[in-house]
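#structure-requests
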Amino acid sequence: MQTLGALLLQLMYLYSFLIIGYILLSWFPNARESSIGQFLGRVVEPYLEPFRRFVPPLGMIDFSPIVAIIVLNLARTGVAALFGLM
């Protein structure tokens, strides 16, 4: 069971980097329309969408990905505690 927990933790860690990569693509014009941007959008947007409903953007800055990453890290902590990997 610890192997499953460790794998799940690594996948959640990788997913947080995918979110960061998707955020960084917004800094470059037309980067989200590239094949990598479209792939990241299909993978990350379903997770970010609920956070965008509750965390409104302040001006031009969208804080919902930051909240999503914090929630994902809290979930990682919960998974680590559940599988006894702390």
